[in-house]
Specification:
Four copies of one chain form a homotetramer. Chain A has two domains: about 5-130, 2-Layer Sandwich (Alpha-Beta Plaits), CATH 3.30.70; about 135-250, Alpha-Beta Plaits, CATH 3.30.70. The two termini of chain A are about 20 Å apart. Chain A has a five-stranded mixed beta sheet. A five-stranded mixed beta sheet of chain A has the order 7-8-6-9-10. In chain A, helix 6 packs across helix 7. Helices cover about 45% and strands about 20% of the residues of chain A. By secondary structure, chain A is α+β, with helices and mostly antiparallel strands. Chains in contact: A-B, A-C, A-D, B-C, B-D, C-D. At the A-B interface, helix 2, helix 4, helix 6, strand 7 and helix 8 of A face helix 2, helix 4, helix 6, strand 7 and helix 8 of B. Chains A, B, C, D: GO terms for molecular function: GTP binding; GTP cyclohydrolase IIa activity. Chains A, B, C, D: Catalyzes the formation of 2-amino-5-formylamino-6-ribofuranosylamino-4(3H)-pyrimidinone ribonucleotide monophosphate and inorganic phosphate from GTP. Also has an independent pyrophosphate phosphohydrolase activity. Chains A, B, C, D: Its EC number is 3.5.4.29. Chains A, B, C, D: This is GTP cyclohydrolase III.
Chain lengths: ~260, ~260, ~260, ~260
Amino acid sequence: MTNSQLTLVQIDNYGPWTVTPEPRREMDLQTLQSRLFADLAQFVGSRDGYVFFTRFDNMVAITNGLDADDHRLLQESIGNRYPVTISLGTGIDASPVEALETATAGLQHAGSAQDGDRREVLSGGYLSGPERTSSDVQIAHFDVNDATGKYTDQLNEFDSFIQIEQGYATLMRYLREEYGALSFFVGGDNIISICPAMDAADYRDAIDHVEAEAGVELKVGVGIAADPHTAGMDAKHALETCRHEGTVVELSRPVDGVEVATD
Amino acid sequence: MTNSQLTLVQIDNYGPWTVTPEPRREMDLQTLQSRLFADLAQFVGSRDGYVFFTRFDNMVAITNGLDADDHRLLQESIGNRYPVTISLGTGIDASPVEALETATAGLQHAGSAQDGDRREVLSGGYLSGPERTSSDVQIAHFDVNDATGKYTDQLNEFDSFIQIEQGYATLMRYLREEYGALSFFVGGDNIISICPAMDAADYRDAIDHVEAEAGVELKVGVGIAADPHTAGMDAKHALETCRHEGTVVELSRPVDGVEVATD
Amino acid sequence: MTNSQLTLVQIDNYGPWTVTPEPRREMDLQTLQSRLFADLAQFVGSRDGYVFFTRFDNMVAITNGLDADDHRLLQESIGNRYPVTISLGTGIDASPVEALETATAGLQHAGSAQDGDRREVLSGGYLSGPERTSSDVQIAHFDVNDATGKYTDQLNEFDSFIQIEQGYATLMRYLREEYGALSFFVGGDNIISICPAMDAADYRDAIDHVEAEAGVELKVGVGIAADPHTAGMDAKHALETCRHEGTVVELSRPVDGVEVATD
Amino acid sequence: MTNSQLTLVQIDNYGPWTVTPEPRREMDLQTLQSRLFADLAQFVGSRDGYVFFTRFDNMVAITNGLDADDHRLLQESIGNRYPVTISLGTGIDASPVEALETATAGLQHAGSAQDGDRREVLSGGYLSGPERTSSDVQIAHFDVNDATGKYTDQLNEFDSFIQIEQGYATLMRYLREEYGALSFFVGGDNIISICPAMDAADYRDAIDHVEAEAGVELKVGVGIAADPHTAGMDAKHALETCRHEGTVVELSRPVDGVEVATD
């Protein structure tokens, strides 16, 4: 069984800030948002966690391995270097969406995202060393079969993008509804999902669903480890195996000790 | 009539680079992608253009006001500071998607995105000063009605995100298919579209369609100017008018001289 | 004769901000300072100007080619993305230090650097197109002879650094006192100076003085152009000539039409 | 007694890279250097170490608390995101300059800084947890008395800068020669020194020497702890005490258990 520690990163009072006293230059907002995300990616990533840009004013991270001091420091450092501050809510659950539910609720209870007074909330609990196991985190890394050949080198960029987006929108809904998994587009033709303990047949079903609904063909590599970086890197290598072997689903190691035939 | 100058920014040989000699740490890739986008946002934005992160390895920009020297300098500067290089293809057309078609084709003719030899292509033409008019660029800025109240403060972040994504996926397809307009999610609950000459009724139809198909309620502010920044800032102000007046569609100035009743 | 347009960039109220309400983490201040400088380097540099980190809370730029709108935009963009704001004072004079005197005075008249109320001053005048000539900017690029062989590969890094610093401190004083030139250490073993119209003999004297006083051997390449980037790039190429020819002073083109023998 | 762990960060083959195939735009080099330093400041700083920009192609860090895995990860992450790579040499000694000597030698033995083949050296040893004590790191934070009143608000920026530089050049030589301490200008009117176990009288002597030699009046706060961040933050607070009490030297806690009268 997995045990995901999810952290929601929410910029405090961002909507009002972007238009006060007047609307700000859009490209400056894009720059601020992207660089704030990049800093989170470095802080969390160098501690072996993963963070996803999501909506930029709200970002989802899987933070198995980061403790209270890490979260506190991250919040302080952002507050020292940006014109905005962040609130951090954390939750832990075998189901990723349940963990995120707890994380989000921790912030919602403290106040609205656009509350003029709510700043730098730090809520929730963190997995201690002894509580962690090597199957806590399951990361699935999907990509589109021959995206470059089928889309990038053939269609105009927006039509390529529409294809990838439709595939993503379909996969994100299906995995959340069926498994409580959280999926994030990470660039190119890549989607990374934070999953509960799912097996090869589950991934095959998801891929079949996306092909039927959106006409987009995916393949997936899956990794399981105590931390997101290790699980995610195993997933990348498993995806390379798909690429070389011509397979569709590759798990880097059995789920819960059960040997699973790759497909 | 609009006259959009679209530039496609494509990282050369990125897919292979990310896995050679071995797959690279995902959070380092996220950092590189985001910071590269942020630099493009600053360069293009400070020349009054707009750029959208799109797929990060392929990014779409509307560059009315940027000439050949600007594109060449941008390419050189990125090449001096990143471990990757970029190719830039540009196209001009009243229809945004047609302009992007030309831009994309310019790169495709030079070689594949994953061509080991193709580097730093610079293709296409640029609007000269005398060719430009004050109705060249039409920017629409959509946001979701009361996203904070309905989603952010109520649902867990991923379910809020799914709602926004479904709304975006529906709007992006509709506007591209009906009008050749290109729509980009820019964070929070905001979508910015590069449009041809559309009127208030067209925007109303789009909003109705998204509400019917995805259950997401949008409002929109629209601006028209010679450059993206001015058009986009007018659109932001028009959106503030929607917010204060309770309206759904506001155009900052008439389209093609025809007075259009806002709705 | 040169005609330098110097801009002083000063962070408003920075000293107090760094310790209010409590002293901030030093590495966060270093990060903020460096990234602010980097953004200035990109904005000014992409418009063919040069900016030097100087004291980080006060930075000196040579901005021939940047006008009032450019300065205003730079100020606005920084204000949108950092937790601090900047004041910009500009001055124009054949003598670089006189131009900087004017630039500095413009800010001083508006209020103290640590004035709780003074924010985002924009003072001074800017060279118009017709006023500019191809000899406005003289840039000298010095480096230390065989720094890698003599210092970097021989001494511990701090002792190498002391040597470079002593050479820099001596050169900066001499050139300011003798010629009103402004010298800036730019990394490695490189110093870039903003000079008035000086000839090869003047540079030779300066190099002799530094060798006598600090025991550090320099060579120099000099460029003259309408803008800092072109002058600076010519200076770099002239320095490469020194490196290949074994010479000590190389001017990329004659000063004021007088042919000057390189030495 | 102190026990400093010093790490030298050296960009591999940087000199040649900056001019191959042609000299690169100076402002792009300044941007790359500053952003690389900022990333080091974040990585090392978030692990409670300190890093100083020094010469930018060679940077000095005090890394008590960072182990082999941390150094390895830092090197990998930079290699993934920049067009250059870094070598890291580490040394440990009660004397900061001796520790840096070891750190530097580790790289020099592997090859020249401009060796076409030497890349990503990782040399030296790291303090283990049990080896560390609460007096390992002594950080002194100097600033200039009333720099704003005396210089910034009175002189043109370059003449203010010359004053600060002369003060720094004098202090850096004196502290290195007398105590093996390493001093770094960190912006504004601030200098931070990595010191061995020195007492209040030693600091008073140094301040007297700088006033006599360079005419610059300094005051200093000193901290002692197991890690640079804690020692440095204590030093900042001690400096605030100087500011409020009108004193010249303040130690945040006694050196080696001996109560030292502040002066």
